[in-house]
Amino acid sequence: MAWACLLVAGLLEIVWAFSMKQSAGFTRLVPSIVTVVTMIGSFGLLAVAMRSLPLGTAYTVWTGIGAVGAFVLGIAVLGEAVTAQRVAAAALIVAGLLLMKVSSPG
């Protein structure tokens, strides 16, 4: 259950990062509201996951899901650059997440 909460928390992190970008520095109401609501949900689910997962594992996986998801969303939706170095960096983050998952209890 902790891993499922952590996954959803990471997905919500992607949503709040994207909506924060869309809020234009919190000057647009709807994206600003989406940002705050999904942040609360993301932090709440992270807290639930941390009840049974180690801090380092939970936080690393949460931020990794958010980072890679925001990277992919930036490319797919916002037209951000795709370079070999950026893709390699994202691949290394994913490899680290997988290693963290297989080396952690729970």
Essential attributes:
106 residues, mainly alpha, 4 helices, flat
Summarize the biggest pleated sheet.
none
User: With helices defined by DSSP (H or I, 4 residues minimum), what is the helix count?
Assistant: 4
Summarize the amount of helix as a percent range.
over 70%
User: What does the average pLDDT come to?
Assistant: 95
How far apart the termini lie comes to 9 Å
SSE order, one letter for each helix or strand = HHHH
**Rg, alpha carbons:** 15 Å
Number of domains: 1
| Helix-strand makeup class | mainly alpha
Strand segment count = 0
Uncertain stretches:
none
Q: Which of globular, elongated, flat, extended, rod-shaped describes the shape?
A: flat
Strand content: under 5%
GO molecular function, one term: transmembrane transporter activity
GO biological process, one term: xenobiotic detoxification by transmembrane export across the plasma membrane
Main location: membrane
GO cellular component, one term: plasma membrane
